[in-house]
Structures are given as structure tokens and as C-alpha cells.
Specification:
By secondary structure, the protein is an alpha/beta fold. The chain has 14 helices and 18 strands. The chain folds into 3 domains: 144 residues, 3-Layer(aba) Sandwich (Rossmann fold); 163 residues, Dihydrodipicolinate Reductase, domain 2; 72 residues, ACT-like. Chain A, domain 2 (Alpha-Beta Plaits, 2-Layer Sandwich). Bound molecules: L-homoserine. The site of L-homoserine (HSE) has 11 residues, from α7.
Length: 412
Amino acid sequence: MRIAVMGYGIVGSGVVELFEKNHESIISKSTQTELDIKYILDLRDFPESPYGEKHIKDFNLILNDPEIGIVVETMGGLRPAFEYVSACLGAGKSIVTSNKELVAEKGYELLKLANEKNVNFLFEASVGGGIPIIRPITQCLAANEIKEIAGILNGTTNFILTKMITDKMSFEDALKLAQDNGYAEKDPTADVEGADACRKICILATLCFGKHVYPGEVATEGITAIASEDVEYAASWGGVVKLIATAKRVNEHRISAIVSPAFVESHSQFAGVDDVFNAILVRGDAIGDVVFYGRGAGKMPTASAVVADVIDCAKHTVRNKMMGWSDSSPDYVVNHLDCEAVLYVRGFSKNVDLSLREAEAVLGDIKVLYRKNQPETELAFITSAGIEREIREKLLSIDSIVPVSIIRVTDY
Ligand code: HSE
């Protein structure tokens, strides 16, 4: 059986490298007598590449070659990845992809097409880089009703937050380092504004709850508004700020899902997840909590997941792995403002003592926070649990407080 790799960027080149490095053991695990990479598709030239004649620029060579049974898509983005992947599935070729945007936006129809054609569409690398999470959810935890899933799903933002907190590095320098290390997306806005984590929680929520969750339905906030003051207040409260993506079953027909910065307590499993590492917590009715941890981005960790999928495809050439889910209605994901939350609030007031008394009168119990060198006009507190919309409305009704930062507080 022969393989084509579409996209020779960081992940694609890692896939080819890993495949060549561990070729013998990969072949033996694949149960094929032959398994090799025939084509590497990319519009760019790679004069230094050792894979000279394998480099091609014409997608039709892959599509029309009956020897190609598995196509690896590591181009990223929706276009032309969607057209290429659809055409390959239509031609009876299995697909392995690391492209979370493709899976989050088009997974439902691509899986349907794969099932119709009795081929595989596998995407272990699309969430958590090298961490095994798709198979654990769909296979090992299949006996559970999943109640909730949450995680640190973006390596770049976790790397930036870690460098800002522990090394006092500037946001820009930390982002540059993440890019140099090959963690960030082509357009790092998708990392820092939360879109990448949003796509990943959509994929996880879809697998956990059985209906397609589209990125447009999930409220998403990135890390660009996090200030060092918030990091200091989080420390004084006993925790750290992390970008957390979460999805929860609300009832039989609805889920909630959100991506946002959050305070996590220092004893939380998420608090010690630093640098490019990701962690994913799955809460099942039989297993309880189970946490997956590892490198969430980078060339070889992601290649590890892609090549494992290639081996799986090679082992299942005449049987598709029957992953699938149904489409969802537009009201499937409830508005997060109607869900319960605990909020951290930082703001300004001309009379902090008076404002804190007012906040207590309006919001009920609050926990006041302090930090070193706190300006006289600055205040910060944590609210009690309540419906988020109501907390925010009450907060706005306190005229003497000008809120600057509002961050969710988790109990993971
Ligand atoms: N840009 C992504 C991240 C790559 O930083 O997590 C892995 O999906």
C-alpha cells in the first residue's frame, strides 16, 4: 500500500521524517508487506529535501493513482483541504488528518462520506497533538455517559502564559518563541484569540455527546486581555490563569461549551500543566475523572499521532472504523450566560471600601483579593456561584465600580 502526504510544513515534514525513521517497525505493526510514501504534495519547492522525486505539485496525481490507499492531510485550513479530502474519500482512499479546522467544520459530512465509501477518516492528531484522546473517548471510554470534558487545548497560549508568569517574558517575545518552536498556527491569531482551542473542544464535545458542535456556536475568548495584575490576583487567590475549553451536558438534548481564560486552583490537575503541554479531563459516569496529559503541539508529537492513524488505516483496509455522529440543531449549544458561573472581577473605584460593601449587598458573598503594590483605586474579588447573566447585570448596576477584567473561576 502506498501513501501520499499533502502539505510539507511542520507537521507534514515530521510525518515523513518519523515514517522514514521507524519504517521497519511501522510496516510490521501495519500488517502490510509494503507501506511507503509515494508523493509529498506542496506548492513550494524544497531543493534541500532528501525526498527529491516524491515532491509533487499536482493534486490529480494523487487522486488518480490507484496505488494510493492512504492520504495524509497536513495542509491546514479549510480550502483546498476540504475539496482535496472529499475527492480522495470519494475515490475510496482513507484520510488521516491533523487539521482541526477541517474536522470541526466539516467532520460530519466527511465521516458520512467515508462511511459510505467504506474507508477511514481518522484525526487523532487534530486535538492534543501527540496525546491519545480521540481513541480513548471513542473506544476505551465508550461504556460511559460522558458528563463533561475540559482541557488546556492550545499549546501556544499555554506556552505564552507560562513564559509570562514564570519568566516575566513579554507577550510578544513569548509568542515569537512559540512560533520559532513550531507550535503556533500559520496565523497565530487563531491561537491567542482562542479559535484553535474552540475547534478542538468542538471535536471533543462532538465525540463525547454524539452531535456535531460547530465552532460558530461556542463562545470564545482568548488570552490577549489577560494582564499581569490578573495573574497576581490569581496567585493571591491560590491559583493560576489558564485558557480552558470546556463542554458539559446540560440535559438530554443540550450542551454548554465555552473557551475562555479561567482561574484554576493550584491543586487542580490543570494548574501544573505548563509550556506547550496540554491536558484533557474527561468526566464519565462510570470512570469518574480521567486526565490525559502530554505535548499538545510541535512537529514530532503531532507526527506521532498522524503516523499511528496511518498504521490504523493500513490495518483496516477493508473495514472502516465506524466513527460517526449526527448533525445538530442550531439551539443545541445553550448560551453560556444562562449557565452557572463564578467570576473574578477586577476594577476601579474612587472609594474601594464603599464599593466592596455595595458589591456584597448586590452580589451576596464575595471574596476580596489583594496584591502587592495595589493602587488605592483598584479592587478585585471573586463572586459566589450564580447564573452568569445575572451576576454580570448586577455588577453593571454598581455604578461606583468600573470593571476592567472579568474572568471565570473553575472548579476542575
Ligand atoms: N497551534 C496549535 C497549538 C498547534 O498551539 O496548540 C497544535 O494544534
